[in-house]
Amino acid sequence: MTEITPADAPLPASDAIQGPDGLARPRWASVDPMLRDYYDTEWGVPVREEHALFERISLEAFQSGLSWAIILRKRPGFRAAFADFDPDRVAAFDENDVARLLDDEKIVRNRLKVRATITNARATVALREHGGLVDFVWSFQPDDTPRPKTQADVPTSSAASAALSKALKKVGFVFVGPTTMFALMEAIGIIDTHLLDSHRRGSSGVWG
User: Fold this and answer.
1) For residue 35, is pLDDT > 90?
2) Are 123 and 173 in contact (CB under 8 A)?
3) pLDDT tens column, 81-105
4) Fewer CB within 10 Å, N side or C side of the chain?
5) Helices (H), 48-199
6) Which residues have a Cβ under 8 Å from the Cβ of 203 and sit 6 or more positions away?
7) Residue 154 sits in a domain of what CATH number?
8) How far apart are alpha carbons 160 and 176 in whole angstroms?
């Protein structure tokens, strides 16, 4: 009987799927063309501009309890409804705007999330006096990043996302729990949770 050494042991199977274009992607980005394009061009790309980061935080909050595909399909509607996520303009929204948004079928009509977006816009504007949203969020970049072989290896929260959540709440943000902030950190490149054999692994330039 031949002894199997650790070096000879088979590697765990990957969740990545090779597409018709020969590129490997996780299952969630392998079927729907919209999600595939999002994965190939946006997800995990560093976001270092206030306007874009505020949009990402807002959409991640709306995604809570829903699928990302729903949010992505409605993104044009969200952008139209929320003044293209300009923090200054959204911060000035009043009760008439809340009523308008809750009547807008092109977005997710959730009163708490609508109000949270306005609250977070005001917090974003206020944070400019303390270095701004971008530097604030990126200051929670951890010393290391996950290296998942399969989707089961990808965590849903971390010490860094919990710390970011706590810090954002302290400066007035809402709907920014540790799981939501972990998803944000994945989406904007603060951490790299692309599967190891995905064609996008390491593409952000943040992690080797």
Assistant:
1) yes
2) yes
3) 999 999 999 999 999 999 999 999 9
4) N
5) 50-63, 68-81, 87-91, 95-102, 111-127, 133-138, 159-170, 178-187
6) 44, 45, 194
7) 1.10.340.30
8) 13
CA 83 to chain centroid = 20
Q: Are 79 and 134 a contacting pair, CB within 8 Å?
A: no
- The answer to the question of residue 22 being in a domain is no
- pLDDT tens-digit map of 175-205: 999 999 999 999 999 999 999 999 999 999 9
What lies within 8 Å, CB to CB, of 123 at 6+ separation is 168, 171, 172, 173
Mention every residue, 6+ apart, whose C-beta is less than 8 A from residue 1. none
Residues 97 and 132: their CA atoms lie apart, in Å, by 26
Domain that holds residue 122: 48-187
User: What size, in residues, is the chain?
Assistant: 208
Asked if residue 4 belongs to a domain, the reply is no
Question: How far is residue 185's CA from residue 154's CA, in Å, rounded to a whole number?
Answer: 13
Catalytic residues: 38, 60, 68
Does residue 16 contact residue 198 with C-beta atoms inside 8 Å?
yes
Q: Does 203 fall in a domain? A: no
pLDDT tens-digit map of 63-76: 999 999 999 999 99
Is there a contact between 81 and 110 (Cβ–Cβ < 8 Å)?
no
The answer on whether 51 is annotated among ligand-binding residues is no
Residue 1: pLDDT over 80: no
